[in-house]
Amino acid sequence: MHLILSREQQSAGTKLWPVDFNEPGIRAITFSLVSVATALTISSLLVGLYSTTSGNDPLARLRRLLGRVPASKDDVRLLGVSMLLNGACQMLVLAFAAVNLLGIFSSGAYTGYAPADTVRTEADLRFALTIVMAVAALCLAAGAYVVGTRVNYLTRGPQSAEPGLPQT
Asked: CA 54 to CA 47: how far, in whole Å?
């Protein structure tokens, strides 16, 4: 299937996908899912910011259930920085998803990236913006992983006699 429609096909109303993105229900569902994801991301950012600035873990009860807790206040702060970087990565992913969704909704259908002989400034700008945001999100995720590996944890709960042996 050819993924790029010519301008003649676009003006004639040829649809590439069976889903009509101009349908109000599709838009409402899409924007509500993006809104829920944004709220969860903002809460992740706020938890990371609180952990970084105060040195207290707001999720201490949940972490105790997992069996590992950060060893000191500095480790809680490092974990908070890791959560902040992860939250920023999630915000960038949501931002470039929103940019692409708004582009789809404004054009009425997904038209794909324009080939070099039919340069469209809006599609080119959206494509370049998506690439820059994706690379930045990958860098933030890598940074969050590196910072997260530096956190020292205390293991809670029963220990096996030898490491690597299952509990009996």
From this structure: 11
The sign one gets for the Cα dihedral 25, 2, 99, 86 is positive
d(CA 157, CA 167): 11
Contact 51, 78 (CB under 8 A): no
Q: Report d(CA 78, CA 151) in Å as an integer.
A: 6
Please give the residue that has the higher pLDDT: either 1 or 117: 117
Rounded-to-integer distance, Cα 148 and Cα 101, Å: 32
User: What's the predicted TM-score (pTM) here?
Assistant: 0.69
Residue 2 confidence (pLDDT): 47
Cα 54 to Cα 44, 47, 58, distances in angstroms:
15, 11, 10
Structure-token pair, residue 163: 């490491």
**What does the H/E/C string look like for 30-65?**
HHHHHHHHHHHHHHHHHHHHHHHHHCCCCCHHHHHH
> How is residue 89 written in tokens?
């990565």
